[in-house]
Amino acid sequence: MADSCSSAPAPEPVESAECINVFWDDGMLSHEMGKGVFDTGMDPGFLDVLEKHPENSDRVKNILSILRRGPISSYISWHSGRPALISELLSFHTPDYINELVEADKAGGKMICAGTFLNAGSWDTALLAAGTTLLAMKHILEGHGKIAYALVRPPGHHAQPTQADGYCFLNNAGVAVQLALNSGCEKVVVIDIDVHYGNGTAEGFYQSNKVLTISLHMNHGSWGPSHPQNGSIDELGEGEGFGYNLNIPLPNGTGDKGYVYAMNELVVPATQKFEPNMIVLVVGQDSSAFDPNGRQCLTMDGYREIGRIVRSLADRHSGGCLLIVQEGGYQVTYSAYCLHATLEGVLNLPLPLLSDPIAYYPEDKAFAVEVIQSIKKYQNDVIPLFKGS
Ligand SMILES: [Zn+2]
User: Fold this and answer.
1) What is the chain's Cα-based Rg?
2) Phi then psi for 288, rounded to 5 degrees?
3) Do the Cβ atoms of 276 and 244 come closer than 8 Å?
4) Mean pLDDT across the stretch 36-45?
5) CA-CA distances (angstroms) from residue 21 to 76, 119, 190, 283?
6) Confidence band (pLDDT; 50, 70, 90) for 48?
7) What is the mean pLDDT of residues 107-118?
8) pLDDT over threshold 50, residue 95
């Protein structure tokens, strides 16, 4: 593996990266989950015009095109993907669960859990998403590049070792983190800014002190049997992993200033204490002001600043090594723009490359500050790593 991602002291910070290595495969367009999930499901339906399922291929088509034709295109180096092997999936998931998915695929598909449909083509797409994320991590581990973005779907961060959840079948980031650990990385931090709790990734490493999972999400709580976790601040990990899962449930309406405050008050200090050798940014644009599935108010400015903060953590701790993994984000226009802005921040560019086409959202930082300070006090009181902070 690359020296830069080993446990050796990190080199001096660098000012900006030359490029972002984007991993993508067109096969990931071959999964659709129908339409109409926003209708009530009552018979007869009330709506004549049914939207596509929010997790549809249009989302990533726009992300692809903005990376190809947007001003960031000259900073992008493109790479193809590949399907994951079953043996690679078993580093995170149980054999029984993987068998369930294989059998569902053979049977022509089924609803795996609420709102999550494995249809014809879905399983091959899920394998591509996991394998492509593994390739992106491998690219970094082998020293071919420092920053990689796995542009993948279906998303993965709700997929737990034993079950699917929230449009996710396989935990793409989870298998990549496990690959990093197996390759000699001693400590990995996962920073998840998708608007939903990254419960699957948290669950996979809940008893590990080698992976610090941090999730910023809206305070949605449990949403049923597929998502029993609450995402509350007291879900801290177990055994050796106690204190290595940090949940940051943010009040609805938290915007750019609130998110940046949470990053600087909670995420940056925790990451500095942990001293990771590898950083994984799990990014969802459903934290944006216009997302149908989220109630937060990030704009391009906020995503750009989060990208910049995470980049500075990578420069400080992991020799600049940073894997970015795509998760949710369901407003097909704004998601692409917010992803563009995130990568501008990661590149540490001095000025924005793109202006915001739609955003202005008034926000009140005061309530977010109050909540973030109470989370900080709780963590400092309870978590051994933070005692005396
Ligand atoms: Zn989400």
Assistant:
1) 19
2) -80, 165
3) no
4) 71
5) 6, 30, 19, 16
6) confident
7) 93
8) yes
Backbone angles phi, psi at 103, to 5 degrees: -65, -40
User: Which element (helix H / strand E) includes 306?
Assistant: helix 300-317
Long-range own/partner contacts, residues 32-38 (CB < 8 A, 24 or more apart): 32/56, 32/57, 32/119, 32/121, 33/115, 33/116, 33/117, 33/119, 33/122, 33/167, 34/117, 34/119, 37/115, 38/292
Residue 35 Cα to ligand 1 midpoint, Å, equals 18
Question: What's the 327 CA to ligand 1 centre distance in angstroms?
Answer: 7
Question: What global pTM score does this model have?
Answer: 0.94
Phi and psi of 190, rounded to 5°? -115, 120
Ligand 1 mean position to 303 CA, how many Å?
A: 15
3-class SS of residue 59: helix
Q: How confident is the model over 272-279, as a mean pLDDT? A: 98
Distance 2 CA to ligand 1 centre (A): 32
DSSP-assigned letters across all residues of 188-200: EEEEE-SSS--HH
139 is catalytic: no
Which residue, among 171, 170, 114, 153, has the nearest Cα to 28 in the 3D structure? 153
Looking at 158, 196, 217, 340, which residue is catalytic?
158
Residue 87 clears pLDDT 70, i.e. is over it: yes
Q: In whole numbers, what is the pLDDT of the chain averaged over residues?
A: 93
Q: For residue 285, how far is its CA from the centre of ligand 1 (angstroms)?
A: 8
Return the percentage of the chain with pLDDT > 70, whole number.
94
Mean pLDDT throughout 273-301? 97
40 — pLDDT class (breaks 50, 70, 90): low
- The CA 321 to ligand 1 mean position distance, Å, reads 24
Q: Measured in angstroms, how far is the CA atom of residue 145 from the centroid of ligand 1?
A: 28
Question: How far is 361 from 289, CA to CA, in rounded Å?
Answer: 7
